[in-house]
Write a structure and sequence with these properties.
Length: about 725
């Protein structure tokens, strides 16, 4: 027998063809979901072929040989003497988790796991409105043990009714000792806790480690359900057949009653045939697979020790899944996923999936594939880390140079003031249908401005000037006092539509403010330092604020005004629910802005990005990657003089062209100053995705995005605590 690797692309493989839904790409090397890339054992293929050729495909019962083959396998290789009447059915062990949660607990009941753990176990609890209790394993290096005192305390304090036990442990690769399992069972029996023991990885035992079925260690029948399957050992998950072992008559009757109520009591005939053949004749194939897996493990361990020794490699006792720690390099899942996917082109299961952000620096690697794939993955990781460390060293050098230059600048100009942040929050949000600037979108009542201020504060900004309307002053200030004002100096300016040159008559029906140029002028009496200006209803990302703060810290007008702006790729700034206004940027070879073309209606049209200036009569393409302004500009106070000088002519233009909705835009003024040779505007770039609330339908997207960023560790759960 010779093990054969199969390229599974185009075979409707979840692992290979289903990556897009999980990672947003189908070009990664998949080392995530736990299945294999080897040709199915001959005995299984032959059995299925014979069955399809010779047996009518009518209603069928599980064959006797299915039960007998499993019973013999379990006795021979695991020392567990299973009786036929104990064996029940589930399409998969994951279904078994869900069914057990529903059968053995009520909504609100506590269900405990030992984390990090196979994430469908966590989902089975959360998806059914039970209380999930995660008792973390104790980590020592890359070895894991159980905190029995904590386990029992968690059970007592939370009224736990069910323990879902992973044995062998996925993802950490532990095979539990008899003493460990007995102690867990004693605690569960003492407190009346049911146990589901997932033993699907039982056939993957390495070196001297031996899997021991939980049921063989004591009289636990009244509260124990064991789950296993041929699907992991023989890579036949598509056969949809798992074995649920319930020795206790009463507990088994409850299980079968539940099955009757959902009318799922037996499986597909092909699943029974495949499993029986695997258990009867598949041992030689399995041993070849195991030899390949162990060889892959030894290769990964040796190569990473040599080329990337800061990656900690788990000790593989059971399963074919390797737990790796990237803790020396990364702290958040966003950092890990960016490295793995964007730099290395690899798809792993991420640590946070197995129990939360505290496991974010870890990944789970599937070893059950070809040596070529494993070598490619290791090389990409090692090369990626080498390149990343070089980039970090260069960034540190540049940051040190910038800090030294700033120190010299401050020494030469001790009166120089630190940059401040100006937030334009006076728009009424007519398309949104309310005061979008104070709409709460964070999981703890945060508004978009909270995230903006938090990012700015972390970047170094100490003062923020909020430009608002008097009508929202009380609510707005209350929100600031609750959060940002605890850490920053928050000042206020008020945009008033009547604050325009004398003699200009406001047209009847005009309620919209005069635009972003007019908004900045509202703060003309308190802006006395270089400043960044942002919209209140846009999320910019932490990197943008650090970049612009560093630039403004040494910005100084000379022969020309020294301005800057942060540009975003156009595709990262659009709404799914309609057109938006964006300033399309053109730059010179030195990265300075040449001009901004304000496009008031730009949107996705099918798979194209287009804008219109004639209400849709014609459309013009905008290439993907085009840099656009999101009104994140950096100015010196000289812009105030220019805005004051240009306000009258712009108000008159608005009254002529669009008296009720026309606006005085910052990008237009900036572009004019460039054309007049009065300003240099350095373009700084952000790869971040824009989030904002242009339309009411955008709100949920922002809510979900901010929640995910908290889960990934980019923000704390409570920003300002």
């Amino acid at each position: 027998m010779s093990l054969k690797y199969i390229d599974r692309r185009g075979m409707d493989s979840v692992k290979w063809d289903g990556m897009w839904s999980k990672y947003g790409s189908d070009e990664l090397l998949p080392l995530w979901i736990a299945d294999m890339d080897f040709e199915c054992a001959d005995c299984i293929r032959d059995a299925l072929s014979d069955y399809a050729r010779n047996v009518p495909l009518g209603y069928a019962m599980p064959p006797d040989d299915y039960y007998d083959a499993f019973i013999e396998w379990e006795s021979m290789y695991h020392g567990y003497d299973v009786k036929r009447e104990w064996i029940c059915f589930s399409p998969g062990v994951v279904s078994g988790f869900y069914w057990s949660v529903l059968m053995l607990t009520k909504p609100g009941d506590g269900v405990i796991t030992l984390t990090p753990v196979y994430y469908p176990m966590l989902n089975a609890v959360k998806d059914n409105d039970r209380k999930l209790i995660m008792c973390d394993l104790v980590r020592s290096g890359m070895d894991y043990s159980i905190d029995f005192e904590r386990f029992e305390q968690d059970i007592v304090e939370n009224g736990v009714k069910l323990f879902i036990f992973c044995s062998p442990a996925n993802p950490v690769g532990r095979i539990w000792t008899a003493e460990e399992i007995k102690k867990l069972m004693e605690i569960c029996e003492k407190h009346g806790v049911y146990v589901v023991s997932d033993e699907i990885h039982q056939d993957f035992e390495w070196e001297d480690h031996k899997h021991i079925p939980t049921a063989t260690l004591g009289d636990y029948d009244s509260f124990l359900i064991t789950m296993t399957s041929a699907s992991k050992s023989f890579n036949i998950a598509a056969a949809q057949n798992s074995i649920i072992i319930i020795p206790d008559d009463e507990l088994r009757a409850r299980y079968k009653d539940f099955q009757n109520r959902i009318h799922v009591s037996s499986g597909n005939a092909f699943g029974y045939v495949a499993a029986a053949a695997a258990y009867r004749k598949g041992r030689e194939w399995l041993e070849e697979v195991k030899a390949q897996i162990w060889s892959n493990y030894e290769y990964v361990k040796a190569q990473l020790a040599e080329r990337a020794p800061e990656i900690e490699v788990g000790s593989l006792q059971g399963t074919y899944l390797l737990w790796l720690s990237l803790n020396k390099y990364f702290q958040t899942q966003e950092e890990v996923s960016d490295f793995c996917e964007n730099r290395c082109g690899l798809a792993f299961d991420y640590g946070s999936w197995f129990g939360g952000d505290r496991f974010a620096p870890f990944v789970r690697m599937n070893l059950s594939t070809s040596r070529e794939n494993i070598e490619e993955a290791v090389n990409k990781m090692a090369d990626g880390l080498t390149a990343m460390e070089a980039e970090r060293a260069e960034a540190a050098r540049l940051e040190a140079e910038a800090a030294a230059a700033a120190a010299e600048s401050e020494k030469a100009d001790p009166d120089r003031k630190k940059p401040v942040l100006v937030i334009m929050a006076a728009g009424m949000g007519s398309r949104y249908g309310g005061l979008k600037q104070i709409d709460q979108i964070g999981s703890n009542g945060e508004i978009i401005i909270d995230f903006t201020l938090y990012d700015a504060w972390k970047a170094g900004f100490e003062t923020a000037i909020c430009i608002i309307k008097k009508e929202i002053e009380e609510d707005f200030k209350a929100l600031m006092e609750r959060g940002a004002a605890k850490h920053m100096n928050i000042l206020y300016a008020y945009q008033d539509m009547t604050d325009i040159p004398a003699g200009i008559q406001i047209p009847e029906g005009r309620v919209k403010p005069w635009g972003t140029g007019h908004a900045i002028l509202a703060a003309r009496n308190i802006i006395d330092a270089p400043f960044a200006v942002v919209n209140a209803d846009d999320y910019y990302g932490p990197g943008a604020f650090k970049t612009i703060y560093d630039y403004l810290s040494h910005a100084k007008d000379g022969d020309k005004y020294d301005y800057c702006m942060v540009a975003y790729q156009v595709e990262n700034t659009l709404s799914e629910h309609g057109s938006v206004a964006r300033g399309v940027c053109t730059m010179d070879d030195q990265g300075h802005l040449k001009k901004i073309d304000e496009r008031t209606k730009i949107q996705w049209n099918g798979d194209k990005i287009q804008f219109t200036e004639d209400d849709g009569a014609s459309w013009t393409d905008v290439p993907v990657g085009t840099p656009v302004s999101m009104n994140l500009f950096g100015f010196t106070p000289s812009i105030i003089t220019e805005l004051k000088a240009r306000l009258p002519e712009n108000i008159y233009r608005i009254l002529r062209e669009n008296p009720l909705k026309g606006e005085f835009y910052i990008p237009i003024v900036t572009s004019e100053l460039i054309q007049e040779g009065k300003a240099d505007v350095k373009v700084l770039h952000s790869p971040d995705k824009w989030y904002g609330v242009t339309y009411k339908e955008d709100r949920q997207l922002v809510v979900d995005a901010m929640l995910n960023k908290k889960k990934e560790g980019i923000y704390p759960d409570r920003l300002w605590d």
